[in-house]
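Chapter summary example.
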Amino acid sequence: MAEPSAGAGLQLKAMPQTYDAIIIGAGHNGLVAAAYLAGAGRKVLLLERRELVGGCAVTEEVWPGFRVSTAAYLTSLLHERIIRDLELERFGYRVDAKDPAFFSPFPDGRTLFFWQDGRRTLEEIGKFSRRDAERFPKYEQYLERLSAIVEPLLLTTPPEFPPRAAGDYLDYLRLLGRFRGLGRADLAALVKIFTMSAADLLDEWFESDEVKVTLATDGVIGANAGPRSPGTAYILLHHCMGGVAGKRGLWGFVRGGMGAVSEAIASSARSRGARIRTGAAVERILVQDGAVQGVALESGEEIRARQVASCLDPVQTFLRLVEERHLDPEFVSGIRKWRCEGTSLKINFALEALPEFTALPGAPGPQHRATMHICPNIEYVERAWDDAKYGRPSHSPLIELTIPTLYDASLAPPGKHIMGAFLQYAPYSLREVNWDDLRESYAGRVMDVIAEYAPNIRSIAAAWQVLTPLDLERRFGLTHGNIFHGEMTLDQMFFMRPAAGWARYRMPVRGLFLCGSGAHPGGGVIGAPGHNAAREMLKR
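The structure predicted for these 540 residues follows.
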């Protein structure tokens, strides 16, 4: 009889696998962080609760044959360095720049287009104000100049605040060095852009209400603020700091929908050796003696790592995943005060045909290729904000309509279209009612508003999906449905994001990092928080 082999009859327990880094959440920032870490030779595991990667940048088949960019719907801000470093075009990233960029129909029957061709745009603006047409090139140069100053800060780790060591003061000197050589006018312009309202800024430049409101929309998208609220001028600038096809401020549609952005980053990360697991919800971050040990999944599985980075928002990360006893009470108090009220609502439509605008009949037309604005003037948008301030969804909301199938017909069955309606304002916190009861009736109100400009909307809408702030919280894990992971106000930006003293991506627990939009430089499909967090993780 043969002798038993060594170990026969013994039950061997597999040792838990250990990683250099675990990333929680496969939103685009988490994917970017994983790709950079894996590219540097780190052993990386990315864990995603849902069955697909991308967070808010996803493409989902909502109805048979209709592939919808469910949440995020346009791209511009994704940093060119990240696109280049991660070779995203090699992995299928393609963008069609919008042309025209904007289409605004007005109640009096007039229309305003903004084109890629600057000459055509000036002709359009001239229909409303010759003075504004003369001023517009200078306004674009003004934004270009400010963007050139601010944009390098997007990939910069904020300095320690307040300074704690001699080296911290050197960081401030380096930061100040970036502003060396700026004249008084540029410094004054920087102060204004960070403190003024979008409406006040535009009032300084233009006289036409139609021109001003078309530009002002970028200052309030995703904001818990109206166009006359201080600080919205910076949000306007934030939306102008990206670009498509080398043109600053231009936005575009991703071939295959926004999920193609995330899939390209995921493919880059995998090619570098990162492992991505979906359907793997993290229940808590494991901490011992003030340092991370790994994570525990809802399934009960524990996975060890020397570093953990959370792509979730600050509230989800520190008030749900980390036990409070491991955190400084002052830090916890600050996170509890983190303002993250969501005010955006998205309706995705399956269309049998294209909307017919009373002000510009005919389909398809150039208007359908643009972002179509329904907001006749600044006062209209401010009144919409007034409703939200008191816990009511706007009776007459600002609405942005986009039809990606005019650029990528493969997203819908032949002859059909998908249309996204993104609107302000729909506050997460409602008075006297809840979103589960209000969801469908409010969708009806939105269609009524669209019908004032495109009367055939109800006859062509075959189906629709309504995503309220509550739905955004449930579906994508966004606390209170805030698409930026937290309001982008001056006191929650740069070295205050997410808290004073903790803006350098490393968090109060050793080995724990924040790599989502709740870290500098904030929201949008930009990738910078993931890039910057990975850089800080590689230093340790």
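To summarize the output: Residues 130-150 form the longest helix (21 residues).
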